[in-house]
Amino acid sequence: MLVIKVWCLPKAPEKRLFELSKGFDRILAGFAKKLGFNKNRKCYLFPADMMETGLGEEILIEVSGLSQRPRTSKVLDDLQVFATELAVEVTRFYPKARVVSRLEPYDPDQVTWSNRS
After folding, report:
1. pTM of the complete model
2. For the segment 56-87, what is each residue's pLDDT rounded down to a tens digit?
3. Residue of 87, 96, 37 lying closest to 62 (CA atoms)
4. Whose CA is closest to 21, among 98, 86, 94, 100?
């Protein structure tokens, strides 16, 4: 399952997070086949930050759950464009923030379990 976490967002109405989620949906639809993930198996997390100072100045996007694919130059280019598009989407809502998008590499040794396949 693809997991996108967006850290350090300032407090926002649920409507804004919903709109951001819909933007992520559009981006995922364009990259699902290229990057080998199921666009319907995703989770967006917007964790609350315990410290309010600085929220919205720097925003971090972390993406995990990408499939293991050979890292050809084409795949690396697609990953770079994917990370960029996610950051651009967040920047639409928070234009003054420095936005960083980081894709976590697939780790075949990571143990996971789900009650549904």
Report:
1. 0.86
2. 789 999 999 887 766 788 888 999 999 999 99
3. 87
4. 86
